[in-house]
Write a structure and sequence with these properties.
Helix 1 packs antiparallel against helix 2 and helix 2 (65-83) packs antiparallel against helix 3 (89-101). By secondary structure, this protein is mainly alpha-helical. It has a domain at 57-116. The radius of gyration is 23 Å and the shape is elongated. It contains 5 helices and no strands. The longest helix has 19 residues, at 65-83. 44% of the residues lie in helices and 0% in strands. The N and C termini lie far apart (57 Å). Residues 1-41 are annotated as: Disordered.
């Protein structure tokens, strides 16, 4: 995933079109249900916070059991790093690089063309609004 972070699809003048050698076939599999393990109670607070945020983040919709296992292992490593008295910049960089593979940050997701958007606001159907207006006109509204 090297290189600059691409613009959001909506920010592009026209959507990307795949041409010629850029077009690649995709092998598809079946996503299986996952069970998210609980965080280790002994983890450093930052590792716990990161774990909890992963469970709540939109990219978790794409995670499979192996992704959760990798995330668990990385939080374990991060906790060890944060608790240890002797810290290595190389170890921290390695941990952060591994989190990129889980698409933890927005830039990581955009590099692989995954964008998370706010859910569309729920609108009442025209029929529900019309009935509510009719009840109000009849004096039956609460």
């Amino acid at each position: 995933m090297p290189g600059p972070v691409p613009n959001r699809e909506a920010d592009l003048a026209r959507p990307r079109e795949r041409k010629g050698s850029d077009a690649q076939s995709v092998t598809r599999g079946v996503a299986r249900p996952t069970k998210i393990p609980n965080a280790d109670r002994n983890w450093h607070p930052i590792a716990k916070r990161l774990w909890d945020s992963l469970k709540e983040s939109g990219q978790a919709d794409f995670y499979q059991q192996s992704d959760w296992a990798l995330a668990y292992s990385l939080c374990e490593d991060l906790s060890y790093y944060k608790k240890s008295g002797k810290r290595s910049g190389q170890m921290l960089q390695t941990i952060y690089s591994a989190f990129e593979r889980l698409l933890v940050a927005e830039g990581d997701r955009r590099r692989v063309r995954i964008e998370l958007h706010e859910p569309a606001p729920e609108k009442q159907s025209a029929a529900v609004v019309a009935i509510a207006d009719y009840k109000k006109d009849l004096g039956l509204a609460e």
